[in-house]
Amino acid sequence: GKLADTAKAVAYYTKKPVVVCPTIASTDAPCSALSVLYTEDGVFDQYLFLPKNPDIVMMDTEVISKSPVRLTVAGIGDALATYFEARACKASGAISCAGGKTTEAAVALAKLCLDTLLEEGLKAKIALEAGVCTEAVEKVIEANTLLSGIGFESAGLAGAHAIHNGLTAIEECHHMYHGEKVAFGTLTQLVLENAPSEELEEVFNFCIDMGLPVTLEELGVKEIDKDKLMEVARLACADGDTMHNMPFEVNEDKVCSAIIAADAMGRFFLGL
Which of 21, 113, 150, 157 could form a disulfide with 242 if both were Cys (CB 3.0 to 4.6 A apart)? Predict the structure, then answer.
């Protein structure tokens, strides 16, 4: 993701075309007209919105299927947020990454992304662990990149990615992949929304089946430090970040509480 975002940004500043040929499916960065900028310490800084998408995106699924399974699973974690953030942006009337309102077509793409992950994700993971590229793997690679990439920028980002950005402030999380942190951000967003119990159960159990983190400990945070989590919440609620695309008023206290509650719920579903 960082490599694709860097290439897109360099192409933009040098006024050159850009072709993205990823060998992994760990994020939706290959297809999007967006680069994420970080500080030298690895903390989220800002989004660089680009005037156009990459000129060509070419993905060899046989090559990708030989990459570490954890990377594709991380891509599933990133793509998992697409529908829930699109739904929030649609409800709030937020301006999308593409500069307009969220359309029904955007929500439909985002929903197809989610449905594909829930139906094919576990099958794809098992196939990848067996070292083969199946139809389920092909569908998940498409969901991770194309459906998620077009879905998020045609609708918008919301709480899940804002939580990810906040988590970059915790050094213990730096070894985790983008999509792994986004997955926990999605769970936190659902708690923040007070989503129906059935939806929470489905998404938490899906993450557990996929091996995505559902607790702070799985993200590398061994002890819950309220001050640290408030710093995560503060960064997530920063002016200009996508937390403000949620369809209700959000503040640092609510976000911090949602993080703690999501962690507790994760431990519940893990049977801890």
Answer: 157
Q: Is 239 known to be catalytic?
A: no
Which of 29, 27, 158, 42 shows the shortest CA–CA distance to 90?
158
78 in active site: yes
150-176 residue pLDDT tens: 999 899 999 999 999 999 989 899 999
Catalytic residue among 41, 45, 60, 164: 164
Asked if 16 and 55 count as a contact pair (C-beta separation under 8 A), the reply is no
Token code pair at residue 215 = 């607790």
- Catalytic residue check, 174: no
What is the value of pTM for the model shown?
Answer: 0.92
Mode of pairing for the β-strands spanning 56-57 and 19-20: parallel
pLDDT tens readout for residues 3-48: 999 999 999 999 999 999 999 999 888 998 889 888 887 777 888 8
CA separation for the pair 139, 143 (Å, rounded): 6
Of 5, 28, 78, 263, which is the active-site residue?
78
Q: What tokens does 258 get?
A: 């949602």
Residue 28 bears catalytic tag: no
